[in-house]
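FW: tagging you since you asked about this chain on Friday. Here's the raw sequence from the shared folder, copied in full. Didn't touch anything.
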Amino acid sequence: MVGKTALQIFLLPGNLVCDAIGARADDDRAMIRSLINMLFWNLAVVLAVVLW
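HL: got it, structure written out here
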């Protein structure tokens, strides 16, 4: 249960972008979601390190 919730939170930025641009094919969603999640979470970690 905790793992599934953590996964949903981790994938949330990519899923939101996929929904916003209307990507429906699984392959398209996977590529877009991977790109957005990498950009978002890398930025979040860098900002957390810099601000800490």
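FW: Residues 26-51 form the longest helix (26 residues).
HL: agreed, and Helices lie at 2-21, 26-51.
FW: great, closing this out.
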